[in-house]
Design brief:
Layout: H1 2-26, H2 53-75
């Protein structure tokens, strides 16, 4: 029974993380309309949002969740 709770809990956490990341990526700014026809853009994405604190927290939470799952699996 305990294993089922861990499995379903992991599924719920992964689903919530995917939703969070999906909504963050939808908020990436891009210019409206077709790409400009002029001199080429500089290398890299000039419209990218810098890597912020929320992304770091999501990654840290995912890492801790995976660690807990691995530790729980080793116990069983």
């Amino acid at each position: 029974m305990k294993r089922a709770y861990i499995t379903y809990g992991a599924y719920i956490i992964m689903f919530l993380v995917m939703l969070t990341i999906g909504f963050e990526l939808m908020g990436q700014p891009n210019p409206p309309g077709p790409p400009p026809t002029g001199p080429p853009l500089p290398p890299g994405n000039p419209f990218a949002v810098p890597f912020g604190g929320l992304e770091i927290l999501v990654a840290a939470g995912a890492a801790l969740g995976i660690k807990k799952l691995v530790d729980a699996r080793k116990k069983d």
